[in-house]
Amino acid sequence: MNWPYEWQIGWRYTRSGRAGRRNGFISFISFISVAGIAIGVAALIIVLSVMNGFQKEVRAKMLAVISHVEVFDREGAALADWRTTAQKASQNRHVVGAAPFIAAQSLIARGDEMRGAIVRGILPAEEAKVTDIAAKLRDTVLAKLEPGAWRIVLGIELARQLRVSAGDQVTILAPGGQVTPAGVMPRMKSFTVAGTFEAGHYEYDSGLALIHVDDAAKLYRLEGPSGVQLKLDDVNAARTVGYELAGTMGPGLVVRDWTRVNRNWYDAVQIEKRMITIILTLLVVVGAFNLVSTLVMTVTDKRADIAILRTLGASPRSVMGIFVVQGATAGVIGTVVGVGIGLLVAFNVDVIVPAIERLLGVTFLPGSIYLISRMPSDPQMGDIVPIAVGSLILAFLATLYPSWRASRVNPAEALRYE
pLDDT of 277-301, one tens digit each? Predict the structure, then answer.
């Protein structure tokens, strides 16, 4: 192939170093710089893929229980007509389902055991349109939630803490009280446990209870549902849809999306992802600095060759191009190898991690402690492409100064002692 001589010489310098002790050392440093770039790129891809996997798994378990967007009365009162509110919200192109709800913080007691929980009043048939857990249980335990039956479905961890099972009685202590001649007495109501649900998210498994919306209205003294839950076709559009609905639903209603309901978790994940990206990018930067060292040593070693090329008519720009090609080639090789290793590991984390656990006899994610018992991974092009492009840019920038120094070599000075 008839390549420009700058490319041919640059590629030859990249492969040089097999003969001679000094050239061999330069070749070793070059290998270290390529390996550093590859390791940094691979580490970035693997770690971000695992973080994406964790975020996806936790979010899926979370959104199996809660809706994507909630619209509720600012004062916590009942909506005048929840169907009209739902219909108005459904005019947004992203809304694919709506259901009424009443939610209140209450105490649930069984004998000496008492736990705080969110009691959510739902319409089982409508709830199945907005949450996965309701769609899954619609024909089983949720079918037992009938108006006036005073039945309740508990999160599995909440049921364990209260030591109850299906058929047992629990008492709900509603916020506020009722005035009697003996003073203010708490409002209490006995419910029969219809069953349990398991979302896989400890916060909801241990702190959520479901009852029929009509029973909730009577318990909390409301005339009807206090809000509407919405399901979207794109969970990532929740914040945007929330802002759009806030401007169209009216001043008396509050719109809240799932990223605001779980703001601490959502913001923590985003911050951790940014910080880990910055930290691991330093590995790629270290590889780029090693590339600078390699090129500086190569320029020093090839001063006589550079001088001969200059005397044969090579321009400073051509000399600079030779070493840019050498450095860029090392950067491309390191990036390609790093992307390959990173994707190979990221797509096989579910096989590699269990193998390491069996080999070492340890468990990295005990199911009794962590929400997820396996190491998830979700490689995304939105992470991989910027990592690869950033690595190539760093490698290219690392070649500029050594290449410029090579182009400034004085042929007469370099050949004086040759």
Answer: 888 888 788 877 778 877 887 777 7
The answer to whether residues 76 and 226 touch, using CB atoms and an 8 Å cutoff, is yes
Please compute the mean of the pLDDT values over residues 196-215 and round it to a whole number: 89
Other Cβ atoms within 10 Å of 116 Cβ, number: 12
Instruction: Give 190's Cβ-side CA count (13 Å radius).
Output: 5
Q: Is the pLDDT of residue 177 over 80?
A: no
The answer to whether 78 touches 224, Cβ cutoff 8 Å, is yes
Question: Residue 304: CB partners within 8 Å, gap ≥ 6?
Answer: 414, 415, 418
Angle at 179 between CA 173 and CA 180, to 5 degrees: 105
Say if residues 347 and 29 touch (Cβ distance below 8 Å). no
**Residues with Cβ < 8 Å from 309, sequence gap 6 or more?**
9, 318, 319, 322
Tokens 């290998």 sit on residue: 31
**Under a CB-based contact definition with an 8 Å cutoff, are residues 388 and 332 in contact?**
no
Please, which residues have CB within 8 angstroms of residue 115's CB and are 6 or more apart in sequence? Answer: 107, 108, 109, 158, 161, 162, 206, 207
- Would you put residue 89 in left (φ > 0), alpha (ψ -120 to 50) or beta? alpha
Sequential DSSP letters for 67-105? -SEEEEETTSPPPS-HHHHHHHHTTSTTEEEEEEEEEEE
Q: Which of 1, 10, 50, 2 is nearest to 309 (CA)?
A: 10
231-253 mean pLDDT: 87
d(CA 189, CA 168): 14
User: 316-346 and 5-15 are packed helices; what angle lies between their axes, rounded to 10 degrees?
Assistant: 50
H or E, element range at 180: strand 169-180
Q: How far apart, in whole angstroms, are the C-alpha atoms of residue 148 and residue 215?
A: 6
Q: What is the pLDDT of residues 303-340, one digit of tens each?
A: 777 777 777 777 778 888 887 888 888 888 899 999 99
Instruction: Count the Cβ atoms, other than its own, within 10 Å of residue 30.
Output: 27
Q: What is the mean pLDDT of the chain?
A: 83
What DSSP assignment string belongs to 246-258?
A: HTTS-TTEEEEEH
Pairing of strands 95-110, 151-155: unpaired
Task: Tell me which amino acid residue 168 is.
Answer: D
